[in-house]
Structure formats: structure tokens, C-alpha cells
């Protein structure tokens, strides 16, 4: 059970359909275009929405934040886009398009366009990251193990994240708990460059403790959040 009423889920699906995220069928919904971000957004949607809402509460008026690619980050961007006095920097063309009618100022950094993720990568993107400043960076991950730290499955996108981490801003992992326990080829980090993890209440207690022992603040969102 998600703890979310049927009416709320129906309203969310209606909103997503109006915004061209999906097409509703009899009894279910399917993405209009099964690209990476949209497909993942539909997986654990209500959990990711709650994570995004919590992450948005950490952003103060007047702040400039970096939002990386990914489904939870896209929902965070949509939430922050409701505020006029927030500046959002991103490498995701998906997020930039999502915010085309938003109140926020949006800065899309350039680079090589990676079609499968709808994001910018490569040395030009790294160079642009060096030229902008932000107080917080919201990062997606593909895996985490205590032996490896945070990992990504794509070399080019991982390189962009590591460029962001070099800025020294508050780096916040925003991800559902399904990513913990997986290992992918490319390292995000070192882990000392991250300050915080926002995830859901399905996170294993052992993993929660391991993250805290690594020096991270761990925010658990959703039912059973108080541990």
C-alpha cells in the first residue's frame, strides 16, 4: 500500500496525461514515449513524488540549485518550478522542457546531447559547470554499496555528476530505496563529497546505518519514516 488515496492517484494521472507524460488506458496508464526518464517516473511514482516534495522543502526563496537528470529530480524540478524566486540549473533537456511554463528561472547547460537520457554530457558540459554557482545539488544515483559508495551506470553522466561534486556545494542524493544494494561500473564521489540522502521508508535498516556511518544525513520519507 502506498498510503495515497485512489482519488489522489487519479488526479496525479490526469495531471500527467494533460502534461503529455502518459496516455491513460482502461485500468492502467502507459508512457507516451518510453524513454528513460518517463518510464522510470512511472515506477514508484507516488513514492518519488513524496521524495521530491520533501526535497523541495529544503530549498529556500532566492536560492540557486542544480538538479541533475532522473525521474525523482524531474518531479523535484516540477515542484520548485511553482516558485518565482528559485533559479534552477540543469543539464537535463527533459527538465528544461518540463519547466517551459514555470515561474522559476531555468538555466540549461550545454554540451553533447545524449539522446537516451535527454541530458547534456561531455567536456563542454564540464566547462559550463565550472562557470556557474549553486548552493545545493540534487543528484540521482544508480547504485550504492558500502564497499563502492555511490555508482552510476553511464560513464558520461557520471563524469558530469563528478564535475558538480567538485564545486563543493551541498550534494544531496535524491532516490528511491530500490537503488541501494546495486553496483554499477562508475564511481560517484568520493562519498565525502555528499552531505545528505533523501529516500523512502523501504530502505533497509542496515543500509540506513551504513549511510550514517559514512557521515551522511539520511532523511526517510513516507510511512514508517520515524526510526
Question: What's a concise summary of this model?
Answer:
This protein is α/β, with parallel strands linked by helices. It has 8 helices and 14 strands.
How does this model look, in words?
This protein is an alpha/beta fold and about 230 residues long. It contains eight helices and 14 strands. The strands form four sheets. The chain has a seven-stranded parallel β-sheet, with helices on both faces. A three-stranded antiparallel β-sheet has the order 9-10-12, covered by helices on one side. A two-stranded antiparallel sheet has the order 1-2. A hairpin with a 4-residue loop joins strand 6 and strand 7. Helix 2 packs across helix 4. The protein is globular, with a radius of gyration of 17 Å.
